[in-house]
Amino acid sequence: MKSNIRLGKIAGIEIGLHYSWFIIAALIAFSLGERFHQVNPGWGTGRVWIAALLTAVLFFVTLLLHELSHSLVAQAHGLKVKAITLFALGGVSQIEEDATDAKTEFWVAIAGPAASLVIGFGCLALAAGLGWRPSTEPRMAVTAVLVWLGYINVALGIFNMIPGFPLDGGRVFRAIVWAITKNVDRSTRIAAGVGQVVAFLFILDGLWKFFGGAGFNGLWIAFIGWFLMDAAKSSYAQVEIATAFRGMRASDVMSRGCAIVNRGMSLQEFVDTYLLKTGERCFAVEDRGRFVGLITLRDIGAIPRDRWESTTVREAMRPLEELHVITPDTQVLDALKLMTGNDVNQLPVVAKGTLQGIVSRSHLMQLLQARSELQLAGGHYPPLHRMSRREVTP
Ligand SMILES: [Zn+2]
User: Fold this and answer.
1) Are 387 and 381 in contact (CB under 8 A)?
2) Does the pLDDT of residue 309 top 50, yes or no?
């Protein structure tokens, strides 16, 4: 979730809005305006819309306070927080590192709902102080705004405590399982599994309400369920990747038989004699035994065909200085992060100026696939990093 509009920084954290937020803000303002108008026919149009708009903006502020609570607690525990983005379904705190212990995870997760509940009950108490009585309609604009903010924040606090990972409640649940099992991967798997069940119930409930005549509300619940399902599934996949590759280094997974071409060759010759014959997608470029760059299908595609004869490999390649290079000791999980963060599909593994091999995303996915097929076959296999060639040949 990327911000489209930057609002500024709080405690070093970039605060931003995604365009989809405006849709929700407008929906809230319109439905509130209508409601205020119905309940208090005596209010003028100006007062109705000012109150409605003010409520929508204050709702945004309270949502931000929810996210800030997560972020500030994370910062206090030494985790880096990059940005907070508000979008149609709420907010996202981009906390760059995962908590390394169950306690931190617990406090970071519970801080948000706790903030919402405090804000919610605070608003209701303030409204009561101004003369509003629970289970009556507020008569003043100020109390109307406070009561709506109060209820919505209490609802937000409770909703987020539903144990569907990756909702806050799911994270709290994961932290508890983590503290009991002392196993972070297992706790994430369990929490993501429960999260999928909760998401499925949301979808069922939403569709049931929709076909029962609830219209938009039903669809909205189903949509939230679908969103949660997606998030729970991707958390599950992330654990699979983390468990498969934890502790492994680039030297364990890199392909060593990397094709090497000379930098002085023309592109035409390179395509004819290497690319079309080997079927490889990525080649290392060397100059007198030293690794100087990479050339991939993408780089060749960027050059018009009629210039292949007059362009050398060196001119078309991406030089070493522009590449993200790793060493044989680099952790595979760090390499994956580097590829995702920079949108590249392969990383050259270099030691002392010479190319040792290439770690590619597609190769890692193949390893993962092979691993899951072996597990599906029913046997118990050692983790990948201990699996030698001998163990898989009969
Ligand atoms: Zn939260």
Assistant:
1) yes
2) yes
